[in-house]
Amino acid sequence: MTVNDTAVNLSELDLLRQRNAELKAELEAEREEKRISAFSFMEEIDKLKKKNADLFTENFDLKVANFRK
Asked: Which domain of life is it from (predicted)?
């Protein structure tokens, strides 16, 4: 292996390391995006659960009021 070959291999290695770093950054960005999305869905689920509980209570109160008539 010549000095030139070694320089080329190091250059290729540097390019691969750079590409690897870019891919890791992209993957991390996607993970963060999905984490935020999952958190948003969980918040929406909590809101819907609360609304469901409120509607259940309202429905129950209306049934009781109707029963007393």
From this structure: Eukaryota
